[in-house]
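Extended Data, record UPF0756 membrane protein SAMN02745133_02258
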Amino acid sequence: MQKGNIFLLALLLMGFAADSTLLATSACILLILKLSKLNRFINILERRGLEAGLIFLMLSVLVPLAHDNLVYWDLLKATLSPQGILALIGGALATHMNGEGLKLLKLDPQLIFGMVIGSIIGIVFLGGIPIGPLMAAGLTALFLEVIYWFK
């Protein structure tokens, strides 16, 4: 058995053990694609999977806006409330950090392995949700920047 298959099988089992359907499903799909010799789909996922995942994430967040039962005045009031303003700031900072993480991954792509392992640890032991490597890369970039400040 190939090392990649063993690693995917281990991830599948960890997903089941941690009750993480996202991890288990992802590992299962990749394992099926590998065992079915559908490597072209794995290559597509490698090139465009992050974009596709972000599109679906954005769609799920924007669905309430598609419903006609929203009262836009209430939406505006909620956005301008103290919590809404903090959400605006949080969104702006998160997207900035994700951009910095993307730059870091382009400069140092081997860091992705540590981020994947860290994400698995977060899923299994901390009950986290795997939303992709960009936030992990953004946090890593922030941690590295803080370390560089103290050097």
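Summary. Residues 39-66 form the longest helix (28 residues).
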